[in-house]
Amino acid sequence: TWRNSSPANFTFSIKVSRFITHLKRLRDTGEAVEKFIARAKILGEKLGPLLYQLPPNMPRNDDVLESFLSILPGGIKHVFEFRHQS
């Protein structure tokens, strides 16, 4: 596994599935997020931040973002790349 074959102090940063960011656009993603994070946790202490790279044509929507943030578990770093100019 990547976890076992990487150096002891190595940290993985993982880009979250485009199904969540591009196809679902952060809406109704509870089950998909749960499954993705469960798989990511296999990395254990080597799990670093999860990157949510949003599509360039997805304008700012505070309600959608707030709802999405409410389903994210603690104990993991979540980082976002907002690519729309809004």
Task: Describe the model.
- This protein has 86 residues and is of the alpha/beta class.
- The protein has one domain (2-81).
- The chain is 36% helix and 17% strand.
- The chain contains four helices and three strands.
- It has a three-stranded parallel sheet with strand order 1-2-3, with no helix packed on it.
- The radius of gyration is 14 Å and the shape is elongated.
- The N and C termini lie far apart (40 Å).
Secondary structure blueprint with pairings:
Elements: H1 2-5, E1 12-15, H2 18-23, H3 30-40, E2 47-53, H4 62-71, E3 78-81
Parallel strand pairs: 1-2, 2-3
A few lines on this structure:
The chain is 36% helix and 17% strand.
Strand content: 15-25%
Main sheet characteristics = 3 strands, parallel
Shape: elongated
Counted up, domains total 1
Keywords:
three-stranded parallel β-sheet, about 35% helix, about 90 residues, 4 helices, alpha/beta
